[in-house]
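Re: beginner question about structure tokens

> Can someone show what the tokenized structure looks like for a real chain? I only ever see the sequence side.

Sure, here's an example I had lying around. Input first:
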Amino acid sequence: MPNVFEPVPLTSPAVEVEGVSKAFTLPHERRTTVKEYFLHPFSRTSSEQQLALQDVSFSVARGEFFGVIGPNGSGKSTLLKIIAGIYRQDQGLVSVNGQLSPFIELGVGFNPELNARDNVRINGTLLGLTRKELDARFDEIIAFAELERFVDQKLKNFSSGMQVRLAFSIATQVESDILLLDEVLAVGDQSFQEKCFGVFERLHARGKTIVFVSHDLGTVSRFCERALLLDHGRVSKLGSTEEVIDFYMARVVHEGLLATQ
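And the corresponding structure tokens:
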């Protein structure tokens, strides 16, 4: 079923996920050359279905800072991409009630052959900023990313951290009601991460809704009011952040003890 992006009463949740399931097809064999197709034109490749999400349901209130945690492969990023409309769920319904800004694949649309100055204008335009807005905010974008010395350097010469800083700085200029954050702070030093957290705190104080996927339980505990624990694509726990993290850590310790026996 399609995602729903429609105006709704202010009393409704900012994000509502109902019975969402998603599977991916994993081929067991691949034919990658013309020769293989020519020699075996009627052979079929076998495949299997991997369930990434299974009957996931939860809602996020307006103005809430909501965390999503879980082990690798639990479906966290898939869930965020479905909410963002990047993936289409196989079953269930997703309602997003407000303007959404996904901080998921930062830097998509960057051209490595162009310098930072040109990429700011192109990427900002793709995100919906007008030329007047970009002109007014250009210095602020570059300063926040700490790239004043590199503004005329081609992006192909930037480190991955520099590119993420630039992409993050551009994305924060877009006015939105709901932010989706997927480990956007994995790259960058501690001082830049603290600057980013400052942005999140200001946006949250302004009533913005934030859905934050992270492996960093300390950061989730610091900012999130409630949290969701995913395990093998299913909701394992939903509640206050402290309650969910305690449940997760107790299970990790228990499984670790079992593994040593």
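Each token stands for a local structural state, so reading them left to right follows the chain. The first strand starts at residue 15 and ends at 27.
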